Amino acid sequence: MAQSKKQKAITIDRDKLHGVDEAIGLAKSGATSKFDETIEVAVNLGVDPRHADQMVRGVVTLPKGTGKTVRVGVFAKGAKADEAREAGADVVGAEDLMEIVQGGTIDFDRCIATPDMMGIVGRLGKVLGPKGLMPNPKLGTVTMNVAQAVKDAKGGQIEYRVEKAGIIHSGIGKASFPAADLRANFDALVDALVKAKPSGAKGKYMKKVAISSTMGAGIKIDTNEVAGA
């Protein structure tokens, strides 16, 4: 495939290993699209997700936020529904919300539910599951503290989950973010992944790390510079 003028103008040695700060700077400078590109991190972990004891999944709050507007849906009734609305939830309901989702309308990016609503939410597994929206107590999205869960979701909390090939992809902010903010978010993500290292993982845990902008080339990072790698 022929390279575009933009790709030709940005020369990145795909084999060279870069320091974290250098890689962030290159990713920012390579984000020249008309829209504010997302800065993304790809981490190849030394795990086999086919084994339950090597699944890496969790949530982390990026200290400088994501730069995205997150719409939050909450399944709750009564006082808990009121708490969710007051905390800033965009969509709140119970059976009525279930019917809306069953009808094909999913107007939220994160889904939270109180435990008593899981009987209703469970019927939506085939709809919410493939989109990664199914509430999960391990991720803090099945909780009685819906107000805090809503605030976390809107305040920079992201979910991460290892894919079949052992890779985790995650955005850590926008290209317009100061480099120091992207570094803070990068460090928070890496720290969370290190803490989530499964006991069944053998050998080198963080095998490869790369950073890129939405439309940019991947920039390899020297894992020796990554804390806990």
From TrEMBL:
Record GO terms (molecular function): rRNA binding; structural constituent of ribosome; tRNA binding
Record keywords: Repressor, Ribonucleoprotein, Ribosomal protein, RNA-binding, rRNA-binding, Translation regulation, tRNA-binding
One Pfam family of this chain: Ribosomal_L1
GO BP terms: regulation of translation; translation
Assembly description: Part of the 50S ribosomal subunit.
HAMAP family from the UniProt entry: Ribosomal_uL1_B (MF_01318_B)
Name of the protein in its database record: Large ribosomal subunit protein uL1
CDD domains, per database record: Ribosomal_L1
Gene label: rplA
Species annotation: Sphingomonas oligophenolica
